[in-house]
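Same chain as my last thread, 330 residues:
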Amino acid sequence: MTRKSHIALFALSSVLTLFAATSGAAQNRNAGSGRGFTIETSPKLQAIMDEAARKTIAQFASKNFTEKNLSITLIDVTDAKRPMQVSFRGGEPIYPASVVKLFYLAAAHRWLEDGKLKDTPELRRALRDMIVDSSNDATQYIVDALTDTSSGVELPEAEMREWAFKRNAVNRYYAALGYTGINVNQKTYCEDSYGRERVYRGAKGENRNKLTTDATARLLMEIATSRSVTPERSRQMMELLKRDPFAPAANAGDADDQSRGFTGIAVPRGSRLWSKAGWTSTTRHDAAYVELPSGKRIILVTFTTDFARERQVVPTVARFVFERMNTAER
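reply #2:
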């Protein structure tokens, strides 16, 4: 077997193992397990979602932007005990770029709460830089800490399987909570992965990180409503996610400013914003919790693919949703 074949087969086997574990966890959990509440849907809210997607696609149609390039999930948490969720292609697995860091943040707080991680200044520095600055170096440190793995040269097959099992710890955690359609076991990079990291990811990205807007919106909702890990840990996570789209920009014109380059472009004056964005040469995403001046509180997660240079798609979706949500009834 060639080295390339070994890489492809290992990555494929990792994906199949993860799918089996996730499916089993989903089938065995009790309905609503880990939530303590039920997420409902709303025809009125779905109409807003459908129109937002339709108008956004139409606005960028001249650039060959189509529905396959867009996924959106909206959750109205104005009544935190009775959230309403709707989506447009919300179950589509998509490479999440740096939005995956939200999942590593919540997992780290679960590990801290359970005593599986030691709370140190260095860990806190890494968590802060991973979310506030979207540092890939900090994320690599956090993934190592969560999974007791490290990067390096290729490993013999048996050792690689043991390494892979450990690296899947975060996936097993979310599968046990009932999350489906996601893969959160890879580090983030400015350039590329090498050695065992590339073997594990697969030469063609067979085992890349994947998220859906539905899963991302659920996690952000749990954090925003103090249901992730503990209320205090949710508060600590929210502190890192807090953005100020109205403050003077330190780097004026920075299109990748998480406060002003994504959903923040569209938030009305008087709103409050918490978010985690992600971007690469092919993707541009944002996961945002917004408190509108009207009192409406919403989770809005927008993923776009193959149009990373079109920086107005995310705020176009958000602007329409905010305008309609300010006046809409549930």
